[in-house]
Amino acid sequence: MGVLSSLVTLLATTTSSLDQPVTNGLSLLGTLGAHSLPKFLSDVRLVDGSPWGDHNCTNTNPYKAAPDTGVVRKYDFTISRGILSPDGYERSLLLVNGQYPAPTIEANWGDTIEVTVTNNITGVAEGTSVHWHGFLQHQSQWMDGTPGFTQCPIAPQKTFTYQFRAELFGTSWYHAHYSAQYTDGVVGAVVVYGPTPKDYDIDIGPILLSDWYHVDYYTTVRSLTAARPGLPPPQPTSDNNLINGKMNFDCSVATNTSVKCSSNAGLSKFKFQSGKTHRLRLINTGADASQQFSIDNHTMTVIANDFVPVQPYNTTVVTLGIGQRTDVIVEADGDSHEAYWIRSNATCAKANQPYALAVLYYENADVDGLPKSSPWNSPSIGCANDPLETTVPMYAINPGEPAETTTLNMTVGQNATGHWLWYMNNSSFRTDYNQPVLLLAEGGNTSYPDSPEWNVVNTGSASSYRFIVNNDTPTSHPMHFHGHNMYILAVGTGVWDGTIVRPDNPQRRDVQNVPANGYLVWQADADNPGTWPFHCHIAWHASTGLSVDILENPGQIEHLAIPEASYQLCQEWQTFSATGQVDQIDSGLRL
Ligand SMILES: *[C@@H]1O[C@H](CO)[C@@H](O)[C@H](O)[C@H]1NC(C)=O
Ligand SMILES: *[C@@H]1O[C@H](CO)[C@@H](O)[C@H](O)[C@H]1NC(C)=O
Ligand SMILES: *[C@@H]1O[C@H](CO)[C@@H](O)[C@H](O)[C@H]1NC(C)=O
Ligand SMILES: *[C@@H]1O[C@H](CO)[C@@H](O)[C@H](O)[C@H]1NC(C)=O
Ligand SMILES: *[C@@H]1O[C@H](CO)[C@@H](O)[C@H](O)[C@H]1NC(C)=O
Ligand SMILES: *[C@@H]1O[C@H](CO)[C@@H](O)[C@H](O)[C@H]1NC(C)=O
Ligand SMILES: *[C@@H]1O[C@H](CO)[C@@H](O)[C@H](O)[C@H]1NC(C)=O
Ligand SMILES: *[C@@H]1O[C@H](CO)[C@@H](O)[C@H](O)[C@H]1NC(C)=O
Ligand SMILES: *[C@@H]1O[C@H](CO)[C@@H](O)[C@H](O)[C@H]1NC(C)=O
Ligand SMILES: *[C@@H]1O[C@H](CO)[C@@H](O)[C@H](O)[C@H]1NC(C)=O
Ligand SMILES: *[C@@H]1O[C@H](CO)[C@@H](O)[C@H](O)[C@H]1NC(C)=O
Ligand SMILES: [Cu+2]
């Protein structure tokens, strides 16, 4: 469907849209009723006017000296099946507390976040687990939410309480990490209030960007993992692109005409106040596509990439690979009676309708009207993140030479039975839900001769490690590392020539795009003994093997105080899996 026809659909139907409970359940995101966020949660004792005292972006190394407020922020999540029509096309989703997008978690820098997760997935019962993207999990390595790595899945009708500290601040998200479950709706924002590289007046809050499918994840992954002898690789195609869980859909192009469908679901709406500066927290929560985000007639000032505050720079387009976040400040310098289009274009993936729209209303604009604004005339910038030269962390760290350097080659191919798989160093990842590597390592076992497909890379007692990742595939990949921020030393096409961008203060982040037929060179400090996935955040690629398990400092894992609850989870999972209901259709890893 072309942009024009989708715009016509919008124009024809804007006055009446579906009710919020029909599109998004109990979530208020994307409505004018969504409240703006505070500068911090003020229900605590302040020191020097803030909950985190005099710590700021330039005087504190957050990896070593994050504040500890002692405050615990508690949340209760129940994951259940539900039926919604986010874009007007009805489908079954997995919902957290009846909401899509899932509830936003808020905390101050240095607080502890505690989330009790109950698995209420019924009908076809499934395991689950929740990953807190970008959180370091120092001293809570078993709380990362990755089945087969740090825990057994939470069995149906069972509960697990996650507890971890907000050592970093800014914008992130959480999502199910069991198979491709998150693409069915288990995605929510996390806002950690902290210092900012540049002041602003109003915090608009999280803006989740996501390609969207009209079929459930299980159906997609089933076809993805089927044998296709002699056939090209399967490429799932998204049906729409959503902003905070909303977009319209042209029902006349629906492939299944017996599904309930309305072409007037309604768009996300945001408010600007003339003359004020607004903070937007952009997050790509999608399955396959990169996002190119822009606001007609407005320039954006980038202040953070992932959980890393950067020296502010201006742009008209923000590119986000899956899992990436970018915080921007936007000055409301438009006309107070106008409305403007917010756009997010899904790129680098197959899409039937890649153009997401939302509406930005100034204070005197008619909130029933639609904008007439035109997009920036921006050149296509492919799938690449902003140049490393542009992204300068506020807190400078020189990583120095690594204690250890390893090459890792990414390839794609068909095995002897015609299954298309992604490989890391010639081995396609597959986990064992029943044997989390962290728990084996706590018991002193770090050798798995019968399980090469666990792709464990043991960095031993090295104090730091560097990976030269060669992407020998014709596709770019958003590569995510758990438990750390990566120092991003070099990115490009072809083969690395040994040059490092700004060795005294390289860009740091937790997801970085590696170009097609290119390289990504990254380094990490081995300050976090544990088992950490380094994987592609494209759900379909992780499902079919694009991951390794970096086993860091196993000697120290033996001394971690992993609580009894983690072992209890495995007993419950053992009991459930013994009933034969577990249908592991893929690598098991999913973000
Ligand atoms: C951070 O705090 C230090 C004092 O500890 C001060 O010198 C510096 O200007 C502050 N930086 C910012 C960006 O506020
Ligand atoms: C559990 O899921 C079922 C079916 O979706 C739903 O009816 C029930 O309300 C859910 N329970 C809770 C506590 O959310
Ligand atoms: C079309 O949707 C209906 C109603 O949800 C469903 O019963 C049917 O199986 C679907 N058909 C196909 C081909 O997916
Ligand atoms: C938006 O920018 C375009 C191109 O610069 C300009 O022609 C137009 O007047 C602007 N619109 C508003 C409402 O500011
Ligand atoms: C960045 O954009 C802001 C707001 O539009 C503007 O005030 C500022 O001058 C720009 N900075 C640069 C370096 O262009
Ligand atoms: C997004 O797509 C629209 C519609 O095709 C196009 O006009 C616009 O330039 C695109 N924006 C970016 C940033 O590529
Ligand atoms: C890994 O990739 C690099 C760059 O493409 C290539 O030179 C090298 O031979 C590959 N190594 C293996 C073992 O395939
Ligand atoms: C190919 O990969 C699939 C999926 O992992 C697996 O089930 C199948 O056994 C593999 N075939 C061979 C010959 O190894
Ligand atoms: C990947 O293969 C290369 C070449 O054989 C080897 O040097 C490297 O150590 C391997 N990497 C890992 C993580 O095993
Ligand atoms: C990759 O694995 C296949 C099958 O196990 C083997 O034949 C091939 O030699 C391996 N290639 C490399 C570069 O290790
Ligand atoms: C370690 O665990 C693996 C996987 O369960 C098992 O195959 C192996 O025998 C264990 N090794 C020891 C020494 O227990
Ligand atoms: Cu990928």
TrEMBL record:
Domain Plastocyanin-like: 81-195, 206-365, 446-555
GO molecular function terms listed in the Swiss-Prot or TrEMBL record: copper ion binding; oxidoreductase activity
Gene3D superfamilies the UniProt entry points to: Cupredoxins - blue copper proteins
Domain of life: Eukaryota
Cleaved signal peptide residues: 1-19
Database matches in SUPFAM superfamilies: Cupredoxins (SSF49503)
Keywords in alphabetical order: Copper, Glycoprotein, Metal-binding, Oxidoreductase, Repeat, Signal
Family stated for the protein in its record: Belongs to the multicopper oxidase family.
Full protein name: Laccase
Organism: Capronia epimyces CBS 606.96
